Amino acid sequence: xxxxxxxxxxxxxxxxxxxxxxxxxxxxxxxxxxxxxxxxxxxxxxxxxxxxxxxxxxxxxxxxxxxxxxxxxxxxxxxxxxxxxxxxxxxxxxxxxxxxxxxxxxxxxxxxxxxxxxxxxxxxxxxxxxxxxxxxxxxxxxxxxxxxxxxxxxxxxxxxxxxxxxxxxxxxxxxxxxxxxxxxxxxxxxxxxxxxxxxxxxxxxxxxxxxxxxxxxxxxxxxxxxxxxxxxxxxxxxxxxxxxxxxxxxxxxxxxxxxxxxxxxxxxxxxxxxxxxxxxxxxxxxxxxxxxxxxxxxxxxxxxxxxxxxxxxxxxxxxxxxxxxxxxxxxxxxxxxxxxxxxxxxxxxxxxxxxxxxxxxxxxxxxxxxxxxxxxxxxxxxxxxxxxxxxxxxxxxxxxxxxxxxxxxxxxxxxxxxxxxxxxxxxxxxxxxxxxxxxxxxxxxxxxxxxxxxxxxxxxxxxxxxxxxxxxxxxxxxxxxxxxxxxxxxxxxxxxxxxxxxxxxxxxxxxxxxxxxxxxxxxxxxxxxxxxxxxxxxxxxxxx
Length: 544
Description:
single chain, elongated, five-stranded mixed sheet, 22% strand
């Protein structure tokens, strides 16, 4: 799915086309549409009775939105229905508040937030369109809430609806930069830093403590003020002033003026320095407020926005802020396929920040909730559902075929084993009854257990017979020992037996005892007696 993010600026509209690759967003196209200033209308004439009710600032906001949408008509009308579109709401439409909610779980924090912030809202909660995001901070939740009057948001929503341009996600610009803080962690680290978005109409400052956005500020010292200075001081046209600003203009602190500067360059640098000093003083007040609330100092400042591309801007601000100032870079290389030049990249960082909402939709603070839910957030079109369903049917069918084939293979193998085992269990040596043989087909485990029990019984019987055989071997020794029990000088010096045969060696006999012993052995009940003399000893072999 393609995501299209539109940064609706007052000077131009920056568009990013993106898609997700390997869990991250990659921009594949980027371009800028300049706002046609001739399309802006004139405010309606008001009579004395209704003039007090007419809000010129809000009318300008809606008129700017109308012009921006008309500039996008041709492009958006060519996008397929499945494209995810992200807009940011006008910064001036919403007010914002930060609040620490003392709750232990997210559900309790959401319930507590409206009551915690109610006293800071200039109108009742029933008249308020309120959207918040909450992030865990130690044992509490850090809440960022944006709100406006219901009637103002409804008028803005109707302007979108009249042009048939209800996006998927409508988020506050600050929420986009909060999401950006998650992806630039490798660059910004866990310290305290500020992102300065120097645009055409405003310069916005976003203060971060680690990954948490903890403060936002806005200044009206911006690119349009530089245009006004150039057209007023040098008496040139607006287009010529903008071309000079983008291509030639530079900024330099007075303390760094050198002899190499011509008189015209010094005059230009002095005028631009006079223009920027009020912003420098504003930033120092913002930084002081941050230091008081967070009890920490800002470590670094990151620049983005079209006006930040003014030559030497980072060195100028670093000199006045007395801390490192550098251009913001993308920690995920999302711009690698977009062919945006490094010089133009700062102009697209607001679009880049807003595009993060497609990755973190639950944390984006989408303003299109309740009755304003975007029709683009409804279920998939029927043709998409049918395509997905058909794909799942094909996958399920393939899995079913594999399972059926596996079952068939197992059944064939089981039948083959049963055929091989049938003759074995019919062996008469097992002496198995028929009811146990019938267990082979359906309950082979029970049959195996019964055979193992039989085996255990047979092994015990074998051990018993082996012990009896060992005792029988001693029978021959007992028999000859009884015969020689009479007192004489003969001694049995050796005895061995094998099966039913025994061999004994007798020695140490006196002459009279030797003859008597021979006579006793030959006349005894021993079977197959064989005598063999060997000197003073003789050997007897017999059966028992």
